[in-house]
Amino acid sequence: MLEAVLLIWGVRDEVLEKLPIKGHWLYGEYDFIAVLRFEEGRELEEFKRELHHLIGSEKFKIYPVKYSARNKLFQP
Questions:
Q1: Which of 32, 34, 69, 73 has its CB surrounded by the most CB atoms within 10 Å?
Q2: Is the confidence at residue 67, as pLDDT, over 60?
Q3: pLDDT digits over 10-64, tens only?
Q4: How far apart are alpha carbons 15 and 20 in whole angstroms?
Q5: What are the angstrom distances between the C-alpha of 48 and each of 34, 71, 75?
Q6: How far, CA to CA in Å, does 30 sit from each of 9, 11, 34, 40, 61?
Q7: Residue 16: left if φ>0, alpha if ψ -120 to 50, beta else—which one?
Q8: What does the DSSP assignment read for 19-67?
């Protein structure tokens, strides 16, 4: 599973209401933040294309989350 953080800025509220995901509205430098989960990298790329068509290419950033390079859970 892939996880990522989505940040959106410079987008009107009417457009944010059309987003196909749940997240949190912010007021300040960013307008919206959400945690995204995908089964495959292909789904992430498809989501990026859809978001680009909805809000534009220079108004969002997706940061992939990497928890650990280990193959199993850490146990102290």
A1: 32
A2: yes
A3: 998 898 888 989 999 998 889 999 999 999 889 999 999 999 999 988 999 999 9
A4: 11
A5: 14, 28, 35
A6: 5, 9, 11, 27, 11
A7: alpha
A8: -SS--EE--SS-SEEEEEEESSHHHHHHHHHHHHHHH-TTSEEEEEE--
